[in-house]
Amino acid sequence: MPDRDKALSIADPHQLFRNSLEQATDAVFVLNADGQVIFLNAAAQALCGASRAEVIGLHVDTLVQRLPDGGHATPEACPQPGRGNDERDERDGRGDRLPAVQVLRADGGKRFGFLAESATTLGDLTLRTLLVKLSDAAGPCRDDHPLLAVIADEIDSAVLVVDADWRIVYVNAGLTRMLGYAPEDMVGRTPCDVLAGEFTDLAALRRLQAPHPAPLVERHEALIYARGGSPLWVSATVRHLASTGGGHHHGIVILSDITQKKTYELLQRKVLHAMVMEQPLPAVMELICQEVQRVAPSVIASVLRVDAERRLRPLAAPALPPEYSAMLDGLPVGPTVGSCGTAAWLGEPVVVSDIAADPRWADYRHLALPLGLAACWSYPIKAGDGRVLATLAFYFRRVCEPDAFHQQLVEVCASLCKLAFERDDAAERIQQLDQYDSLTGLPNRSLLQRQAGKLLLAARQAGAALSVLFVDLDRFKYINDSLGHSGGDKMLREVAKRLIAHAGESALVARLSGDEFALVLPGSDRTRTIAAGQRLLAAMRQPLRIDHASIAPSASIGISLFPSDGDTLDYLLHCAEMAMYDAKAAGRNLFRFFSIEMNWAAQERLALESALRDALLNEELHLNFQPQVFLRDGRLYGLEVLVRWHHPHFGKVPPDRFVPLAEDAGLIGTLDRWVLERSCAQLAAWRREGIPVPTISVNISPASFRDPALATHVAETLARHGLPAHALVLEMTEGLLMEDDAGIAATVAAIHAQGVRLSMDDFGTGYSSLGYLRQLPVHQLKLDKSFVIDLESDAAARELASAVIRIGDSLKLAVVAEGVENEAQRQFLLSQGCHMGQGYLFSRPLDADAAAQWMKSRRPPERAAPLPNHSLR
Ligand code: C2E
Ligand code: CA
Ligand code: CA
After folding, report:
1. Contact criterion met (CB below 8 Å) for 252 and 238
2. Using CA atoms, how far apart are residues 513 and 490, in angstroms rounded to an integer?
């Protein structure tokens, strides 16, 4: 029997139909006219997870449910995978139009697939046949590996499995948690259909979806939208898998929420960096706005500062037209001043989701609506004390309410803005500290400069007078030394108070340094300034108690006038300072107006200083030598070297004039070294010539003793000229010893240790204590010429001279009297036990040749006079 016939012969048409359905790999449900299941095949039975008996008779709707087409707007540009690919449509046996369904299982689970429906007529019966093609028979399904499904659901990331057409066949519970979509919302659709939105980068997604040779992992960051439309940043990892059968591809897409990371990236990388780099506040705000717009492209961000008068001041709005910001500039905050003015007024966030309708925008919507701005949320940025410093606004082009993403962004940005404002505030405070004297609270010189600049400008414009006063306390150093630093500080604070109290309301009072203050009196002409000067001096003189001491402070004041003396603060201050020195010189506790002569004096001083610099450089100085002799017989004891300067323009400049100048100008070290060098050279030359000069005395300034290299330099100079150390005497002044300086003491000791002798010059004029003198390695005292000159006329001078001589004697020091001009003085000194002298009586200071002549003419007699009985220390 041919097969065909055999088949026909056994076939009951029902049986045949049943058999063929049974073989189908897709699930088949046959329904009656009422929609009740009257037959299901083995695949359908497996799909439902129930016995046939349990299923037959159920209404199909309790088993198979069509999935909605989805309520999400599908961007036009998003490609529909598979669409237009006819070949594949045929191969799969379904087009893209097959509706997606879910099959409810007996165990409560769901399976997803596509539904094909047909009607079959069997005799007079019309039966509906539902064919459910599993979304991908070969693909992974929740039920294939229940354990995996449980695991997948535990993952926080959203996991999607897509088929070759990028249709979703599976989603985990994490996706529902992250994006709010249930599996039935997504299965059968493409991720792009569901998740893309207004600002999604579709090109990137398209690249992601392009067919790839499997396996391949790709990663992308994308802005997607959750159910309800709130955006979030995700990192999408796509793994393309080839099924073992070949041809069919699957993809696993894992989405991780990186919104927080993205916002912190903004915070850390750029904005904090900008702050660390000390970018100005507007630049930091601009950057915050730009970063917000990058992370949340639907936002147009702006920051408005709230100034001290509670007015809005645009700070940054990089995406808004400048005209818009300009229109907001200066608006006072208030209860109905748009979103920002209101937020600043309330100190609370103001969310206006519809500018067109919100009453708070009634007066301002005409500014915003034409720019397409539809919503504006504004958040106040507050200082620690609750003050609103600024507002941060998020504008949108559509009506909208805040969502989690934007909320998070606002929080991050608001704290960033707050930080930036606080830093700015701190910088300003530091600048303030920088401008005020911390002791008295008065403006310092730099602030004075700026404030006085404004006053001068105003005076110039108004043609008004102005005076500058330079106030210097009298004998402050003495008070500071005797009362200690804290006493000095108290005095300075008190002086500051008195100056403020008596300078007049419009006056500017500043502390320049130490005990120097400056006052600028706007509108004050000569007459008014005299009154002010008298008032200030009187105020200063009020006795002041510091600790247990009562002090009567006083000040010397120099005054300069605008515009007659000068027209810049610097110059006026300079003139006032010169006048102050004049006041000091005239006896202190008084004021002096600047005069042009003072300026000449000062200018001459400057000219002299530069001439001295040149003279030192060009060796235009020369030396004089003045003999020191034994008073008894006039024999040479030594020579004192005295420096001389004859300048072509200034003439003979006495050392009393240029030595202090050299000290002030920092030239004294050079000068003293030069004199030492030339003195030693001269002594060596005389000794070579056979002129016996016992010692040479060189004057060394206190400032040179402060140079720690002096001892070495002295030793080197002596060595260079082959001179023994005892041939040299260095004359130093008492003032040096007042400075209780360990460095100076060490230098003096080192010089003494070499065998160079030290002489105390001008003895009796200073205040050195005898106890102190005893500790010093001094071998000689020079009785100051002021005592010697008055010996005949003044009993007190005689007493003092005798006392000095006795001191020297008791300390076993040689005493040399200076300025001996006549025989009476010589006799008196001798009678008091002073053995050496120097003065016009013996010789004036002489140049080297004359000194040599003087020495030759006074060759000592062959019989040497007895040396004075003074041990050399
Ligand atoms: P000094 O060290 O006390 O020098 C003595 C001053 O008295 C010299 O004035 C000298 O010319 C003067 N003199 C000498 N004999 C008589 C006299 O009989 N009667 C009167 N009335 N005066 C007499 P000079 O040369 O003008 O020097 C003044 C001061 O300049 C010196 O006082 C010294 O302190 C300083 N000086 C001079 N040369 C140097 C130097 O090379 N280096 C340093 N650092 N200072 C020097
Ligand atoms: Ca001297
Ligand atoms: Ca002297």
Report:
1. yes
2. 15
Euclidean distance between the first and the last CA atom of the chain, given in angstroms as a whole number: 154
Helix extents (H) in 469-517 = 476-503
Residue nearest to atom 38 of ligand 1 (CA): 642
Q: Please tell me the distance between residue 229's alpha carbon and the centre of ligand 1 in angstroms.
A: 98
Give the residue carrying structure tokens 């004096």. Answer: 601
On the 0-12 / 13-18 / 19+ scale of CB atoms within 10 A, 557 is buried
Distance CA(804)–CA(45), nearest Å, equals: 134
Dihedral angle sign, alpha carbons of residues 234, 239, 243, 246? positive
SS3 sequence of 197-220: CCCCCHHHHHHHHCCCCCCEEEEE
CA 210 from centroid of its chain's CA atoms: 51
Q: How far apart are CA 186 and CA 170, in angstroms?
A: 8
- Based on the number of CB atoms within 10 Å of its own CB, is 124 exposed (0-12), middle (13-18) or buried (19 or more)? exposed
171-220 per-position pLDDT tens digit: 888 899 889 998 888 888 888 888 888 888 877 777 767 666 555 677 78
- Span from the CA of 846 to the centroid of ligand 1 (angstroms): 12
Separation of alpha carbons 604 and 219, rounded Å: 81
265: exposed, middle or buried (Cβ count in 10 Å: 0-12, 13-18, 19+): middle
CA of 689 to the centre of ligand 2 (A): 26
Cα 200 to Cα 223, 293, 676, 851: the distances in Å are 5, 14, 88, 104
Tell me what pLDDT residue 197 has: 84
Ligand nearest to the CA of 762: 3
Ligand closest in space to the Cα of 675 = 1
By the 8 A CB rule, do 703 and 669 touch?
Answer: yes
CA of 784 to the centre of ligand 3 (A): 6
Q: For atom 12 of ligand 1, which residue has the closest CA?
A: 819
Largest CA distance in the chain: 176
* Single pTM value for the model: 0.46
CB-CB contact of 826 with 820 (8 Å): yes
Residue nearest to atom 32 of ligand 1 (CA): 656
DSSP summary character for residue 156: S
* Cβ neighbour number for residue 448 with a 10 Å cutoff: 24
**Are 341 and 312 spatial neighbours (Cβ–Cβ below 8 Å)?**
yes
Tokens of 733: 């002044």
Residue 552: count of CB within 10 angstroms of its CB: 11
pLDDT, tens digit (0-9, with 9 covering 90-100), for 298-347:
999 999 999 989 999 999 999 999 999 999 999 999 999 999 999 999 99
For residues 493 and 70, the model is more confident at 493
Position 161 scores a pLDDT of: 85
Mean pLDDT of 670-699: 96
User: Cβ neighbours of residue 166 under 8 Å, at least 6 residues apart?
Assistant: 81, 82, 190, 191, 192, 209, 251
Neighbours of ion ligand 3 (CB under 5 A): 761-762, 818
